[in-house]
Amino acid sequence: MPLLLRVNQLRNIIWSSCPVMLQMQHAGLPSGKLLGPRSYEKRHFTTRVQTLETAVMDTTTTGLGSCNSGIQQLKLQRTSEHGQCATILVFDIETTGFLDKSNNNRIVELALRDLSGGKNSTFETLINPEMDIPTFVEKVHKISTKMVRRHDIPRFGDVLPLLLAFVQSRQTPGKPVIWVAHRAKAFDAPFLAREFDRCSVQMPTDWLFVDSVCLARKLPNMPKSSDGKKHLVNLEALRKHYGIRMEGSAHRAMQDVTTLCQVFQKITFDLNLSYEGLMNDATKSSAFSKVS
């Protein structure tokens, strides 16, 4: 279970773990400044968010955690001696609705896990979307308006400096960061980019995004839909295909991340993917962001 911390404590831990302060320029913010603990609005957030309807402690809160014991460290082969050793982050988001032209929907939960494992290899948080969550969406991910529209739940702008610092603390200097999500191209990456755009922040240029759906479509012998025309490549179908046990509720960010970590490891093995092969399937962050 992730270590539950107050956001201001989490902030200090992340910065103390970084060898240098994260420069604003790296985040696409005005140069000449440092993104330090005092560089954004001081607000105290509780990280133990209680589900009001059930009075059960919600474990998906802002915090850092160690790698799940059931998830092995991912080791991809290199096709050359100087092959890239990128940081691979598996991530998932939950939102107030679909990605559409209205640009109104917001992220309500974010979770990610570094597949290199080790201490503080996960990051997860609920996010205040500053809007209500429709009932039909709440039924999917079980995150209600009452859970997130609270003064002690951080907005995306509050989470952003922590997210950037966390990623940098996991990144190998001079190497890219590969973000992996199921439907990354069509949903997760564009949604994340929109939140960056709202904050007038450019996503780092060394961030790359890989869609595990695109990789899954290359797999042989995948089960087909009832009409026999399409291969089933949704996360649940892949989980069952690989015989992966699911614990907890689907469609919560960290649970889906945990499932995808195991699915992604199976996919890369079946496709015999190398770092170079994964990089070839990646999309640059600039393809999703409007801020430059």
From TrEMBL:
GO terms for cellular component: cytoplasm. Keywords: Exonuclease, Hydrolase, Magnesium, Metal-binding, Nuclease. InterPro entries: Ribonucl_H, RNaseH-like_sf, RNaseH_sf, TREX1/2. GO terms for molecular function: 3'-5'-DNA exonuclease activity; metal ion binding; nucleic acid binding. GO terms for biological process: DNA catabolic process. Pfam families: RNase_T. It comes from the Eukaryota. It comes from Brachypodium distachyon. Its cofactor is Mg(2+). CDD domains: DEDDh (cd06127). Residues 87-273 form the Exonuclease domain. Belongs to the exonuclease superfamily. TREX family. This is Exonuclease domain-containing protein.
